[in-house]
## 1
Amino acid sequence: MADWKDLADLIFPELDETILDLEKKYPARQNSVCSRFAPSPTGFLHIWGVFAALVAWRFVKQNNWTFILRIEDTDQKRKIDWAVESLLNSMKTFWITIDEWNIGNDWENVWDYGPYTQSERKKLYHIFVKELIAKWLAYPCWMTNEEIDNIRDQQQKSKIMPWIYGNYSIYRNKTVGELINKIKENNNFIIRFRSHGDTQKKIVFDDILRWKVNMWDNYNDIVLIKSDGLPTYHLAHIVDDYLMRVSHIIRAEERLTSVPLHLQLFEAFGLPAPKYCHLAQILKIDSETNKKRKLSKRQDPEADVEYFFQNAYSTQWILDYLYTIMDSGFEEWQKANPDKSFLDRDFVLENMNKSGALFDLTKMESVNNDYLSRISTDQLLKETIERAEKYNIELADLMKKDINYTRSALDIERHTPKDPKRFTTFKDVDTQLSFFFDSEYEKMIDSVKIKIKNWDEFFQNIIKLDVLVVSNFIDEYLWVLDLELTVEEWFEQLKKIWKKYWFAWNNAEFKEWGYIWKIWDLAMLIRLWLCASTKTPDLFSVMKVMGKDKIEKRLKTFVNL
Ligand code: GLU
């Protein structure tokens, strides 16, 4: 009579190693504490990912323990080719050092506990599952989506605990003989865990931040191996963290509800469970609902670390911000110890806040705005060019070609009593600088023209001006334009012309004195034509920096429209 071991051999005939062999190959570590960062390579790193990596890294490195990077790529459909490289770059940027990882040519594994990429560890997962099958703790399953949906409907209608377990699992109670026969006719199956959990039982387990956690036990026969032969997160977590001898699992709080299942799996394998620490999410106040919610990669650009680099927040600045989330006493301590860094301070995992920290972009922006407003224009120029060299090479070249012009453009209104502090991030620097350069201006004005599309409608309904009046005004204005004037003289000169064309200076003039047009509509139009943007610094200052030739050239294209 065939037994469960025969079934295991039939499913994995080529495997002869056992968990015991693997334990010898990956022995307990000499320094027993080890933690890891285990991202999935599905895109840019989430700011929460940096936070989690930082916590695990800081926790182990302050005692010179081991920090591992593991790539969790079992969801092959969501995998993105460049993600690992970008992830490694982010680690480097944040000075997070990795002790163990695939290195060398072709990711050859030179470290003792690798490979560190899950898709290369298939055989290890199979060895583990093979033993569970032989111990009657896992079984093959052929249930179709339709069958699963039917069961879910049935459970919902009868208000019975959902999921695949007990008699709701079609293959759980089949005999070895039946399963062997089924495999012979159809080898397209997945492997499920045979849970011995009880739908009515609660368990208590330890979490470093949350102390004793009380939760319903797992009773679901969850999937261990998917139809592509790769493991689910749950099995991979057990196998990898055990074989890599990870002692502290520091991960997202969403995983907390899986702990009962993970403890069952460790028990089923007869292995000790590691210590768990579930980190709170980073939250934000939703601008529409005004309620706290998780910072989401899909909805919030600031969830992506690239956002901060593109907008040029400094790395140190992001780190300090994350340190304050990790350690509520850090900000005050840093004020008292300005020349020390976070690394000089003891980090106690247990003291971290277990409710989600609020990510306050407004605060971050205001700190960045203060910084960009405070520094000298030479420093701003230097940082602007450095950043553009990385993110906007064309603009960097333009700036370098005419450094003095660029400097004057940046310097407008800075450090004056009326300084509007117009740069919050370097994105603002880019947009308020680009139009000074003809090649960038051309691109921008082309897209303005495309947007306007219908000129008659634009003049009648949006700008509410007569195109001929504007052309005449501009013609006359260009005739007298003198950039040597003071701002007051310039204004007086301009005023004479606009009065002549019946432009009102304010609403009262417009309503009560019979003026036909409004000067602010005209100012907006000129701004748009000169800068291809309606958001610009003080117009006269802009014109002074640009010089008469450029102004004439740009405004004349309008007159000839
Ligand atoms: N790959 C998992 C994730 O990105 C890691 C969870 C863990 O740290 O165990 O959510």
## 2
Amino acid sequence: EGSYLFSKRTKIFVDNETQKPAAKYLSDLFEKAAGYPIFISETKGNATIIFTEDKSIKPEGYHLEISPKKINIKASDAAGYFYGIQTIRQLLPPSIETANSIEKNWSVPSIVINDTPRFSWRGMQMDFSRHFFSIDEVKTFLNYMALYKLNTYHMHLTDDQGWRIEIKKYPLLTEKGAWRVESSHDITCNELAKTDPSFIIDEQHYHNREGQRMYGGFFTQEQIKEIITYAAERQIEVIPEIDMPGHLKSAIDNYPYLSCTNEAGWGELFSSPACLGKETTYEFTKDILAEIVDLFPSKYVHIGGDEVNIESWKKCPLCQKAIKDHHLKNEHELQSFFNRDIETFLNSKGKRLLGWDEIVEGGLSKDGTMMWWRNWAPTMRDIAAKHGNDMIITPCFEYYFDAKHEATPFEKVYQYEPIPENFTKEQAKHILGIQANLWSEMIPNFKRLQFQAFPRFLALAETSWTSKEDKNYDDFQKRMNLQYKRLEALNIQYHIPPVTGLKDKVAFLD
Ligand code: ACM
Ligand code: ZN
């Protein structure tokens, strides 16, 4: 019964360092929305919000008790305190998300919550290559992740259509590789933009270069550090992806000795990959990864590995010689040979290899971790689990938020169960968690990105956090109706799920 009312006199008591970032987050929210910060004190005195360490609580979990007089938050780690605060944030009026609010009733209901996440990997991916996003947009997105307790931000930093991270040893990657005149996706976006302005390509990424209007941009290593710090303050780990040996055209364009034919190009579906019969490919990729591992504190480094045009290797005498010399059966095994070499390098730097599920095809190493994306290759999960490898579930048909809402509706995202039915308890332990991806071919600006992500983002968040038994779609829909107000307060342009039960036309009369 009753509620706790925040005021200018509210004080937070913290008794150790791991509690401070969470306390500061709440204080900053109030400073922006209510016009006053919440005072943080290291003496209990008359503090009414009390942080207490409780080592019996699981990692990232928290215990929250709100009564009219006091708020108690218990946890065993910084993430747990942070998520306790995020729950308080969700219980506050949506106007807590706005600046200079006129709201006076900053209250939260009396409640007791014991909460821990189902999965330790609760991820979102953004693609910076096909279309680029600014550092401010990245920070805004990290704020959405914090609010809904997602903890892993996967940055797809390189691809055929643009190289987006400074690499000091190979300056052409960004001097040239970060810029283009017009991609095939740009042409499609421009065509769609004629009738739908949400497809207008963001003007901020056009620059005059060498007398031409070019699209592009990249993050400097200093900016990457800024992103990592900002994410860490929100209990989010940043995972870099440098896609290899395919999806590498923006590098091959500028360092053409990398390919089998000494030039960049396209196969039937995918770009020509790096040649795996040349020592220079191994040196080049490891030089890049050496800078990446120095920059990113994450345990995992994603090396892509998806959609390689192996026809290039079939025709290349050097690749064929490598297959013969290393007693490999085919081109898939050649790719796994490359992956193992890269993995040995990453392991020597204290890192673990992560790749798309194609890394399974030519044989997995002991510690490689797979991101399962191909619904049409379900056995990749079984092979990985049987072999003892960890995986993250990010299926194309359910968790690709660049897909149209009609194709991958909100309900489909919510109802998807990430652990396959045939998995034993032991096998299920190899599923670290789930992730949704925002490939940006058809996402040319941040507003369009919001529209693709929301409200599906919340369905993913609930699946990542809530146990299978506790999920309930009807209940979730009711709670979503409250969340739309919050999304509006955050100025998020979300998709409105269609009215169900109607067939041909939906008319909004008011
Ligand atoms: C992918 O969608 N190519 C991983
Ligand atoms: Zn080759």
## 3
Amino acid sequence: MKPALAMGAGPAPDAALDASGSAPGSTTAWPHRHLLDTDVLTWPQIELVLDTARHMAEIVAGERPRSTALRGVGVTNLFYEASTRTRVSFEVAARHLSADVVNVAVSGSSIEKGESLLDTMRTLEALGAKVLVIRHATSGAPYLVAREFGGSVINAGDGRHAHPTQALLDLATLLRHVPGRSLRGRKVVILGDVLHSRVARSNVWTLTAAGADVWLCGPATLVRGFEAWAAAGVGGERRFTVTTDLEAALRDADAVMALRIQKERMAAGLLPSLHEYAARFGLTRERLALAAEGCLVMHPGPMNEGIEIASDVANGPQSLVTEQVATGVAIRMAVLSLVTSVAR
Ligand code: ASP
């Protein structure tokens, strides 16, 4: 890892970013006009996002004035699925960069009259959108839009496929807490409804790129299909482990990320009942005791407390859940800044 940028030791307040949209002094080139998943990111590019986000965190903390990097740039949040933290986080991030933010309320818009995704995109583009932040229930929808849109598309979650800014904020949060700021060889468990989780998929790319020993764990019906990916290796090389054995997964773990049971995407028959799931796979204090001392606890939210995670674990001293949310703003500022630095 590059050393963290010295807090407060940067350039004059308004020069928060260099001309490339990244943290001052960075040498890595950023080539991505869109951010649709983490699979396209090299490790230096991931580090660039993290370095830039560390710089952005100074603006969020009020140590630097708001940046003018995106002044006059239209950022439109187009969320076809429910969201609190991701949508608000993108909005706050865009405002910290002085962008003109528009939130499209899907309910009450022409989308309800059946307007297609591409027609909606063209309408928003004609109204000045330069960045489209899209959440959609269909995997791949942001890719379709990115093919036609003149500006930048950021995927804020597509179906069960990808959620790149969540994975980046998870990585940034974890790295802040591991000794030496390195995940190399650290055991990170992603637990629960892996099958429906775009968070899990995007995290597998970033966590294995960071050198973590990644384990996916859940009932057989909810980890199905991942064994083949694990055996082939991420990017054809980086292995990870898939198991239904919760004890084996938790033993000596350095971090556990519990996933929400996604009832809205769950086909009948995948789980006998939520009660049974909680009894067999819920992250309780007793189970967490199997992990390494001080094991970090994460959850992308929204949490079903008492189902995938017990309340005392979710709100306990090892929990990074609130910090994940806060970190999301700086990460999204970094991503907004980087993608808009790439000319068409
Ligand atoms: N908020 C995350 C997502 O949109 C996780 C979840 O919904 O369970 O994917």
